[in-house]
Amino acid sequence: MKLSKFNMFFNISPNFTVIYNALHDSLVLVDKETERSLREGNLANIPSDSKEFKNLLRTGVLVEDNVDEDSLLQKKRLELSLSHKYMGLWLSLTNKCNLACKYCYQSTRALMEGEDLSPERWHKVYSYIIRKVKEGLKVITMTLYGGEPLLNPSMALRIIKDLDLLAQEFDVVSGVGLITNGTVYNDDVGEIFERVFQVQITIDGPREVHNERRPFKSGEGSFDVIFNNLVKIIDRHKTRVSLRVNVDEHNVDYVEDFINMLAELRLRDRIAGIDLSPVQPDQAVRYVPFKTSKNYYEYYINISRKIVDLLEYAVEKGFKIGRVITWWPCMCKLKQSYAVDEKLNLYYCPGFMYSPVGYIGYISQDDVVLVSAAKERIVTNIPSCAYNCKLGPVCYGGCVYLESLGIPVCPYILYGEEYLERLVRAYVLSRYREVIARAGDSGGRQGY
User: Fold this and answer.
1) Are residues 50 and 132 in the same domain?
2) Residues 275, 333: one domain?
3) Residues in Cβ contact with 192 at an 8 Å cutoff, skipping those fewer than 6 apart
4) What is the distance, to the nearest Å, from the Cα of residue 32 to the centroid of all Cα atoms in its chain?
5) Which tens digit of pLDDT belongs to each residue from 378-434?
6) Is the pLDDT of residue 109 over 80?
7) In a 3-state reduction of DSSP, which class is residue 154?
8) 272 and 217 part of one domain
9) Contact assessment for residue 28 and residue 18, using Cβ atoms and an 8 Å cutoff
10) What are the pLDDT digits (tens) for 177-219?
11) Nearest partner of 18 among 29, 34, 6, judged by Cα
12) pLDDT (tens digit per residue) in 212-260
């Protein structure tokens, strides 16, 4: 028996440590005595017939001596990436938007605004999905976004209903998520919020800060409209609602105040989580997201580490935070997953939307037409660093989109070991607070 090469140890309290195994995406809570035995290789101190030992084996923290973890990593990655059973699509319902955000994600939108996803184009997408279902597709996830997707509400509802019918008729699993700016909530969209499984709404800080960054096109502030809609959605619907804050050096000092405001309004247990994301270097033609950093590379490292500070603060205030480690490969690295614009052009992922660099093909009738072999190369490539890094099974070489911008994608470079440990610890505390508390009462040693 041996210790897995993909284990990471995180101190949670004076008495307990969490071990995260990246190859199996598992967490185990152990006491300090067990941690010491594992680190020193004294496995004989842990009886092989004990529940604790079985937990360590089940979660992959311990493996048999003859297990080749590199081969297992390669096998799991390719099984996921090349699987014909899973499809993930990010589908733009429109490139129209009613806001004038300073750092607009699609910085060229002003040059092409006015296009909606039509019923005829959706029929092509739906026909493609049906064909894949008949070929063995078992799970389809769809994320609706734009522009502002709720400016095309009839199409959003049609897609949701079509996928529900598909799931019933063919016995497949389907789920639809929604990314919205939160400005549109009325009788026309109520059913949409009732039927999607998760919603993301963006608010960039307290009222004055948000209004300066994300105004309506008229110049009027959008904070009050969005916040009031957020509360209504939470009150009236069971769907999971998470809050996203786009962070750069212009608003980072105000995010803590925003978290305090949310806590004072007792929203801790009413929102699914808080996600903080750096404003990307190419998110606007005339907007620079930094004030003190010398360049985008330095800015991205600095802002990412400040975000760790803020996420820790959010957890201290009782909030959950978004998943910081994702075992499932990103859509760039999944054979049947694409970002699709309203004209049915295909891109590696939403970050590349409308960019010639990320354009890889289009949907025609009931099929996908790829114009290059680049997608296939990304899907099958496993960089050598993945085999030599404890986070290799969840990173696989990092974000393709950020790498194309010259941004550091290795977590150890982006965060450094200290901030990376703090980031994962914050996530564990936010998501497993009750489990850790129960373990403390019972003596620890739980796996999940």
Assistant:
1) no
2) yes
3) 150, 153, 156, 157, 160, 178
4) 32
5) 999 888 888 888 888 888 788 888 888 888 888 889 999 899 989 988 988 888 777
6) no
7) helix
8) yes
9) yes
10) 999 999 999 999 999 999 999 999 999 999 999 999 999 999 9
11) 29
12) 999 999 999 999 999 999 999 999 998 899 999 999 999 999 999 999 9
Residues 42 and 141 in one domain: no
Closest by CA position to 205, among listed 310, 118, 126: 310
The neighbouring-strand residues paired with 242 are 200, 273
Distances (CA, A) of 224 to 110, 181, 279: 25, 12, 23
Residue 424 domain-assigned (yes or no): no
Residues of the chain above pLDDT 90, percent: 68
Q: In a 10 Å sphere around its CB, with 0-12 CB exposed, 13-18 middle and 19+ buried, how is residue 66 labelled? A: exposed
**Residue 273 and residue 224 share a domain:** yes
Amino acid at 264: E
State how many domains the chain has.
2
Same domain, 47 and 100: no
Rounded Cα distance, 62 and 293, in Å: 43
Predicted confidence at residue 287, as pLDDT, reads 85
Q: Is residue 419 part of a domain?
A: no
Residues 6 or more apart from 81 whose CB is under 8 A from it? 329, 333, 334, 335, 379, 380
Beta-sheet strands, E only, within 376-415 = none
Find, among 151, 154, 153, the residue nearest to 98 by Cα. 151
331 in any annotated domain: yes
pLDDT value at residue 66:
96
Same domain, 59 and 81: no
Does residue 429 lie within any of the structural domains?
Answer: no
